[in-house]
Amino acid sequence: MEQREVSGESRGLIPPHLTLLGLVCAMIAVLVSSPLTPTGISWMILTVLLWALFFGTGLKDLLVFTGALLLLFLPLFLITWGVKILSLQGSLPERLWIAAAVPASLVSRGLMLSLLTVTTLKRLSEAELHEGLCRVPGPPVLAALMTGIVFQIRSLSGETTRMMQSIRVRGHKKSAFYSMITALPTVWLPRVLFRSHRLSDAMTVRGLETTAVPFQRYGFSLRALLTSALFLLWASVSVVLRVML
Amino acid sequence: MTTPLLSIVNLSVPKKGRAEPLLDKVTLFVEKGERVALVGLNGSGKTTLLGSIAGLFRHEGEIRVEGELLTSKSAATIRGKLGYLFNVPEDQLLFPRVLDDVAYGLIRGKVPLARAHEKALEVLKTLGIEQLAHCTVHNLSHGQKQRVALAGALITGAPLLLLDEPSAALDPVAKMQLAKVLRGITHAGILCATNDLEFARAFCHRYIFIEAGKVVPELVDEAAILARWGLSDGRSPV
After folding, report:
1. Strand partners, B29
2. Residues forming a β-bridge with B39
3. 3-state secondary structure of B24
4. Are strands B214-215 and B206-211 parallel, antiparallel or unpaired?
5. ipTM of the complex
6. The domain B1-81+159-238 is classified under which CATH number: 3.30.390.80, 3.40.50.300, 3.30.420.10, 3.10.20.600?
7. CA A18/CA A5 separation, integer angstroms
8. Residue A168 contacts B where some CB pair is shorter than 8 Å
9. How far apart are CA B10 and CA B63, in angstroms?
10. Distance in angstroms (rounded) separating the CA atoms of residues A210 and A207
11. Per-domain residue ranges for chain B?
12. Is the model's pLDDT at B40 over the cut of 90?
């Protein structure tokens, strides 16, 4: 029996290129909404929730992603907030409140955009992403480049996982995460550098550096057009909401 | 006299900061349709030699493929004549889907996509892995990646195949299947770096022995190589 992990349209509700269009529209919805107004923040959260629901992302996964991303964004928030507080004048409570506006805006947008991206990439396999990018009208070399970046990140994360497993198996007493952090400069970095070197050799031999790969284009179906219209409508409503309210 | 497919004369590859070179005045020839095992222990210079043929290392001496001298200008043309299997197959898989990766060599040569995919499926079938065509590369086992990478090297019908440890990490059955596939390649010359003599014996016409960056011309048969490694009488060399 044919082993088929990538099935494009048959696997999900929409083909990969429309997933990417939807992602762009959802991102627009998040970017144009103001995180400092109740309507804006509600719209942003609704967009993310609907997007997650659309992909069947479980609540637990969503909470884990949110927690991890909050941890990631927390230092940015604190630093920006601190700098802003120092640059303002007035009473401390007033400064604390006013200074929070910019970093809160940055972090909430960053968090929502990251959630959109993570939920999307969790659903799409690399091959689907590749297919999706190739089917979006645009220069093929851009699709090849973006796919290449994601592909190599995945390779690197595989390499990191193997390294963490090896650290665990070889009986490092600290937690695998802590061990990984401490091993970054001595183990991980040399591995990555050697891998980059080998990869660059392979790209040279296979002639990738000079070639833009042509990919097959597909026509739009009625379903695809309707789905696209829905995504575009969502983005448009977001813009209208921002202008009207 | 016909031009050899691959001709290497006095090839030396210096190593930065060390007096002794990685390769030292290596001379060897591979004829069209010939399958040659480049045998040596780890660190003997096999990978460097294959990389040099692909123009990946600065070298002294002369490398010619189908009579064309390897220079910085001709390197791209020479690479077009090579099918190269790296010793870490994962490094050379550049596309997420198996079929796209295998077809890439043809797509680069402006073969229409549909035809390239068709041909890729044929090659995958030859290697017995057509069921992997639509799989994501990262989800494959090492042996499967090895065969996918080999398919990518075979697809263009390049006149010279450079294989770096193709049998590494393959199970005994897969290894012998691979040897059978390589035996069936008649259009190309093969230079296969390996230290697996059983595998080499299964498909190669002759051996070239390399040690510490030098070809040892007198060691041309398995018994002599095993004796050199201290393995001829089945006892441990240490």
Report:
1. B7
2. B194, B209
3. strand
4. antiparallel
5. 0.73
6. 3.40.50.300
7. 19
8. no
9. 9
10. 6
11. 1-81+159-238, 86-157
12. yes
Domain coordinates in residue numbering, chain A: 15-134+217-244, 138-210
Q: CB-based contact (8 Å) between A209 and chain B?
A: no
Query: What average pLDDT does this structure show over A210-234?
Result: 70
- Picking from B14, B27, B113, the residue whose alpha carbon sits closest to that of residue B59 is B14
Q: Which among B84, B95, B108 has CB closest to A211?
A: B108
CA separation for the pair B79, A38 (Å, rounded): 61
SS3 for A232?
A: helix
Contacts of B80 in chain A (CB under 8 A): 207
Inter-chain residue contact A126 with B96, CB threshold 8 Å: yes
Q: Pick from B88, B97, B137: which is nearest to A198 by CB?
A: B88
Which residue is listed with tokens 């069947």?
A56
Higher pLDDT, B160 or B177: B160
Mutation site, B16, B52, B88, B92, interface A, largest A CB count within 10 A: B92
In a mutational test of the B interface, the residue from A201, A215, A218 whose CB has the highest number of chain B CBs within 10 Å is A201
* Range B95-121 burial, b when 16+ CB lie within 10 A, else e: bbbbbbbbbbbbbbeebebeebbebbb
Beta partners for B163? Answer: B85, B192
For chain B, which residues lie within 8 Å of any Cβ of chain A, measuring from their own Cβ? Answer: 51, 54-56, 76, 79-80, 82, 84, 86, 88, 90-92, 94-97, 100, 104-105, 107-108, 113-114, 130-139, 152
Q: Decide: B171 and B196 in contact? Cβ < 8 Å.
A: no
* pLDDT one-digit tens code per residue, A145-183: 777 777 777 777 777 777 776 666 666 656 666 666 676
Answer yes or no: do A6 and B136 touch at CB < 8 A: yes
